[in-house]
Design a protein that fits this description.
By secondary structure, the chain is mostly beta strands. It has one domain. It has no helices and 8 strands. A 5-stranded antiparallel beta sheet has the order 1-2-8-4-5, with no helix packed on it. Strands 3-7-6 form a 3-stranded antiparallel beta sheet, with no helix packed on it. The chain is globular and about 35 Å long.
């Protein structure tokens, strides 16, 4: 998705699901014009496996529950990796 319009400004993202490595990678460019306080990303594993860990910009991230990751304070392109 490239430059999708939103209430907060354009938003871009790509998703790559790799079942063989139990990993979903998201590259997200959040809106810059009027940045939201939080962005929620819901990632469902194709086989229904639960998220075991998350990294954001290469750092361990713990603000997730079930298949929902809540991101706050994002600026610029951000890589999110969910491990299952």
């Amino acid at each position: 998705m490239l430059n999708a319009p939103s209430k907060f400004g354009p938003l871009s993202y790509t998703m790559n699901s790799n079942v063989a490595t139990n990993k979903i990678t998201v590259t997200l460019t959040p809106p810059a014009r009027n940045a939201p306080s939080a962005i929620k990303v819901k990632l469902r594993h194709p086989l229904g496996n639960p998220i075991q860990s998350v990294t954001v910009k290469g750092t361990t991230y713990t603000n997730y529950s079930g298949d929902m990751i809540t991101l706050s304070g994002l600026t610029g392109q951000t890589t999110i990796v969910a491990n299952y």
